[in-house]
Write a structure and sequence with these properties.
By secondary structure, the protein is mainly beta. It contains no helices and twelve strands. It starts with 11 loop residues before the first strand and ends in a 10-residue tail after the last strand. GO terms for molecular function: isomerase activity.
Length: 135
Amino acid sequence: MPNLEQVDSNPFKIASFLDERGNLSVLEFGEISLQPKRIFWINSVPIGVKRASHFHRKCNQILICTQGSVKIYITNSKLVSREFVLEAGSAFLLQVNNLIQYSFLSAETQLLVLADQAYDSTDVFTIDEWNGDTP
């Protein structure tokens, strides 16, 4: 996966099929350029509390809002920023070297994250640890 150093990726809708038996949502891994090695989810976050606030050097992620909505704040290493709301059934590809912050907009919000790397504490750094060079 290339290091694009940009924030122009857009949220995308996940295919969803609704009938009398309920809703089935599908994300085909052949359609995305990320092969997950770790999956985690975040929920029960108080409304408005900011989470993340860090960069990754090697780990790319897909953020999937499975319920509720979450406000995403993203800034690249050139300090170009963007914010948007990720609604239930939508996802966003977060590439390396982008500062990510998010806050949940409702109590029932759930965020599922697919990561292409196992957790490595040396991969994560905060804006305070950044010296202004490309991370």
